[in-house]
UniProtKB/TrEMBL annotation:
Cited function: Required for accurate and efficient protein synthesis under certain stress conditions. May act as a fidelity factor of the translation reaction, by catalyzing a one-codon backward translocation of tRNAs on improperly translocated ribosomes. Back-translocation proceeds from a post-translocation (POST) complex to a pre-translocation (PRE) complex, thus giving elongation factor G a second chance to translocate the tRNAs correctly. Binds to ribosomes in a GTP-dependent manner.
Coiled-coil region list: none
Subcellular location as annotated: Cell membrane
GO cellular component: plasma membrane
E.C. numbers: 3.6.5.n1
Family classification: Belongs to the TRAFAC class translation factor GTPase superfamily. Classic translation factor GTPase family. LepA subfamily.
Keywords for the protein's UniProt record, in alphabetical order: Cell membrane, Elongation factor, GTP-binding, Hydrolase, Membrane, Nucleotide-binding, Protein biosynthesis
NCBIfam families: lepA, small_GTP
Pfam families: EFG_C (PF00679), GTP_EFTU (PF00009), GTP_EFTU_D2 (PF03144), LepA_C (PF06421)
Classification via SUPFAM superfamilies: EF-G C-terminal domain-like (SSF54980), P-loop containing nucleoside triphosphate hydrolases (SSF52540), Translation proteins (SSF50447)
Protein species of origin: Anaeromonas frigoriresistens
Name this protein carries in UniProt: Elongation factor 4
Alphabetized PROSITE patterns for the sequence: G_TR_1, G_TR_2
Amino acid sequence: ERRSRVRNFSIIAHIDHGKSTLADRLIQSTGLITEREMQEQVLDNMDLERERGITIKLQTTRLIYKAKDGKEYILNLIDTPGHVDFNYEVSRSLAACEGAILVVDAAQGVEAQTLANVYLALEQNLEILPVINKIDLPSARPEEVKKEVEDVIGLDCSDAPMISAKEGLNIEDVLEDIVKNVPAPKGDNSDPLRALVFDSYYDTYKGVIADVRVMDGHIRKGTEIEMMATGKKFEVTEVGIFSPGMVPIDQLNAGDVGYVSASIKNVKDARVGDTITEAKNKADEALPGYKKVTPMVYCGIYPAEGEDYNNVRDALEKLQVNDAALAFEAETSVALGFGFRCGFLGLLHLEIIQERLEREFDLNIVTTAPSVIYKVAKTNGEFFEIQNPTNMPDPQEIEYMEEPIVEASIMTPTDYVGPVMELCQGRRAEFKNMEYLEETRVVMHYDIPLNEVIYDFFDALKSKTKGYASFDYELKGYKRSELVKLDILINKELVDAFSIIAHEDKAYERGRMITEKLKDVIPRHMFAVPIQASIGNKVIARETIRALRKDVLSKCYGGDISRKKKLLEKQKEGKKRMRQVGSVEVPQDAFLAVLKFE
Ligand code: GTP
């Protein structure tokens, strides 16, 4: 039977352990495309992903593999991202699979996200197949790493393929491993249809597309479908597979992974996590969605020019459709006018959305200082949450405040235990314990205020440990804390978009750093610009940007017109990304830049 020859799997790994490289190798070695045709990395196809070298959005592809048993197998590979901010995408793709390949770098060994991803796969009851990668590296220690995977994770590694994805070594072992050890999908073609939407997006040619895993029943062109969450009905216009790229086929059967396009006009109607059923023969119960995600970090996003407001809203709506973790609602700022309060999983997620708005939607936007969600108890008995520092009540009205705390695990070589402790102490972290993974590697557990994590903790950790430490965190709960609102005044005017909530003990230092940074990033004007940080009415730090004296053009003595032109053009370029705040021009990215400390 055909279904017994289908394998649905994902590849999971700590970032940079070689997941995308292996995916490309699998595609290539099953003959789907030749080396010459293969781009750098086939699956990571978003521009941004390529530049940053990380996977953000998941991609799916179907491989045909003729195994050693002589039979042809259909392998559906669903790509997953590796960064700590994108766990929710991982659980999304895992929900569509029966198995997961766990790639572990033979030089690095088990890292924080290796474990985190294993837990996600176990939650979905997947078969996990360890694969040791990068055995070509001189620093590779495959046998030790195998032992580490067995000891730390508890997976049997005796038959784990030892490969080099980069050199294409032993790739066939991985394919055979998948065929032998990933269970074939269950389900019955004649049952009522249930298909899990694990991704959806707008395609310029085909309109709204839902990527689905058919669990029960079948789906084909002409099927009248119903979305179980909303009850809306649509007629299927096309079904197909990813090969890679969309290839229409007649029918998707139970166990298959593919795409569905229907007369869906609004991407919102193909919600990720929803179950598609047949309108005339409905399933009794929807499929379990997967781990719900809630944003942890908020910031304001404003159009650089007010008339772009509607375009920003449209773009956010489009991005939200296949990014369940992105939240937004309208808000206004005195300094920036009409905009949106947006919620993200973390700082990287925020930066990615910001860049996508700029690149894919060609929008000029301003992003304000990120904030976590605080809880406020007022003296009058009210208790509420705030995600925008401007909504913090006057200190006299506050009984107490609470801030979110995360449980963090940091894996590091023992050499860097000192620097990691130093970093954590500077971030108000509370040490819990330390475990040895091997003689030279430990995992350290800390409780850290989320507010300290979002301000560049990850980058600071990497730089203090030469990139060797890895990090994972999970929300633990809320804790009382002495918090104050820190305001920034530019040219004596309070710029609400710069306000942050900080711990009392940190406010002075933050205020000083922000004013110093702003002094560097705000260009000189024809007049002197004072920059002040204050708590209430008390100024705690101050810098002044001196007035501009000379005409910039006087630098190019007389003659050289082309140089003058270039200079003017450069200025214009720079101008594009400025934002007028009162009488002062502030660079668009200043709002985020001031919060990068180390
Ligand atoms: P994300 O997509 O960001 O999660 O990372 P990834 O796990 O997909 O890692 P990727 O495949 O992009 O590989 C990371 C780096 O390791 C790249 O520079 C690869 O060229 C390199 N790499 C991957 N496999 C091997 C290997 O077998 N040997 C060596 N020496 N390098 C490898």
